[in-house]
């Protein structure tokens, strides 16, 4: 991971999942199959498919075993990741401090 921005997004996504601010299904509402197919390198997309086929199901949890926060931060457009965080914040009632 090269940039400070990528590291920040990786940490935000990791913390959101760890603290249950959002869950894998919430993430994949934003990081859709279309987003994955258009932004993941072919080898990573292959790993997602291989893992899912081996398990007999493609679940959000299974996808995030391969598409980790670090992978997301590197390959998924940051505005997509931010929309996931923003949706979770709105759902939790987090508002701007100046309102």
Can you describe what's shown?
This protein has helices at residues 4-18, 24-30, 33-39, 42-55, 60-66, 69-75, 78-91. It is mainly alpha-helical. It has one domain.
Low-confidence stretches are none
Compute the number of structural domains. Answer: 1
What's the total count of β strands? 0
The count of helical stretches stands at 7
Mean pLDDT score? 93
Distance between the termini: 35 Å
Helix/strand/pairing category: mainly alpha
> What is the 3D form?
globular
Provide the succession of SSEs. HHHHHHH
Instruction: Characterize the biggest β-sheet.
Output: none
Radius of gyration: 14 Å
- Please state roughly what percent of the residues sit in beta strands, choosing from under 5%, 5-15%, 15-25%, 25-35%, 35-45% or over 45%: under 5%
Helical fraction: over 70%
Offer a few descriptive terms.
99 residues; mainly alpha; 7 helices
Summary of the model, kept short:
This protein has helices at residues 4-18, 24-30, 33-39, 42-55, 60-66, 69-75, 78-91. The chain has 99 residues and is mostly helical. Helix 1 (4-18) runs antiparallel to helix 6 (69-75) and helix 2 (24-30) crosses helix 7 (78-91).
């Amino acid at each position: 991971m090269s940039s400070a921005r990528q590291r920040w997004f990786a940490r935000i996504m990791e913390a959101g999942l760890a603290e249950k601010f959002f869950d894998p299904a919430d993430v994949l509402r934003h990081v859709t199959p279309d987003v994955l197919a258009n932004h993941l390198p072919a080898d990573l997309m292959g790993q997602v498919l291989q893992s899912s086929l081996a398990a007999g199901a493609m679940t959000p949890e299974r996808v995030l075993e391969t598409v980790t926060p670090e992978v997301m931060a590197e390959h998924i457009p940051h505005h997509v990741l931010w929309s996931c965080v923003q949706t979770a914040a709105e759902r939790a009632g987090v508002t701007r401090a100046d309102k």
